[in-house]
Amino acid sequence: MSNYETITVEKEGKVAILTINRPDKLNALSSMVHIEGVEALDELRADEGVRVVVITGAGEKSFIAGADISEFEGKTPITQRATFNERTLFNTIDSFPKPVMAMVNGFCLGGGNELALACDLRICSENARFSQPEINLGIIPGGGGTQRLTRLIGEGRSMEMCLTGDMIDAETAHRFGLINHIYPLAELRQKTLELAGKIAEKAPIALQLAKEAVKFASRSNLDEGLRREVDLFAICFSTEDKKEGVSAFLEKRKPEFKGK
Question: Mind listing the pLDDT tens digit for each residue in 166-183?
């Protein structure tokens, strides 16, 4: 992997952990974080040894406390729109073919929550706090907060979070369906990597196709979604992993998927 200023990347087996490494800024998303994060994800995408990516923030206080507000000063509507229409962590994560998990340790605010929303699964610690506080700056979410949040937790709850800017705790986020699991902070990494490792043992092509099918559900009508599901299901029958999975089931052994 390349050397980065604002992120770190480590690997544990088939799982890569990408850490936003700006603890003195509560891991705020600067333009450099986006640039380096996109570059790292491109490398991980091409790495056949990596099957799942976990994204987290350095330290125990903050996952990502939003955008780096200092960079907003002097921005014009044209430059800000251009920035968000380029490749960002938000859209790169959303289109990433492998499963991506957010390991949320502490504050998950604004752009941090939007980054977590772009991930496929969200696991958090008991001290995690979530919000879309942009309204307090006289702006609105611009990294998917009004769209992905609404699709995930419903219009009423999303509307309240976006209009008030209030924080919600981990239990509330879990009740809303914003996150999948809550663990004590001391157990967060272990539990997250256990789940990531479990997913990483599945057939890589099937994981990619399952992810595509599920994401398509909220972006299409039912008839279109069902047709896409059948097409993707059929594609699985062209893979070596499908043959291995069926053989292993019939032979009562653990399958060895190779992503082919």
Answer: 999 999 999 999 999 999
Ramachandran quadrant class, 13 (left: phi over 0; alpha: psi -120 to 50; beta: rest): left
What integer pLDDT is reported at residue 2 of this predicted model? 73
- Alpha-carbon Rg of the chain, whole angstroms? 19
Indicate which residues carry an active-site annotation: 114, 134
Residue 1 pLDDT exceeds 90 = no
pLDDT at residue 163 is higher than 70: yes
Q: How far apart are CA 100 and CA 118, in angstroms?
A: 9
Residue range(s) of every CATH 3.90.226.10 domain in the chain: 7-200
pTM for the model: 0.92
| Beta strands 7-12 and 15-20, pairing class | antiparallel
pLDDT, one tens digit per residue, over 112-153 is 999 999 999 999 999 999 999 999 999 999 999 999 999 999
Task: Confirm or reject CATH 3.90.226.10 for domain 7-200, answering yes or no.
Answer: yes
CATH number of 204-250: 1.10.12.10
Q: Where are the alpha helices (DSSP H) in 95-221?
A: 111-118, 145-153, 155-164, 170-176, 185-200, 204-217
Tokens, residue 42 = 């491109």
Alpha carbon distance 12, 193 (integer Å): 9
Please say whether the beta carbons of 204 and 257 come within 8 A: yes
82 by DSSP, 3-state: which? helix
Residues of the chain with CATH 1.10.12.10: 204-250
Cα–Cα distance measured from residue 105 to residue 125, given in angstroms and rounded to the nearest whole number: 5
Beta strand 129-131 pairing with 121-125: unpaired
Closest CA to 1 of 58, 33, 56, 47: 47
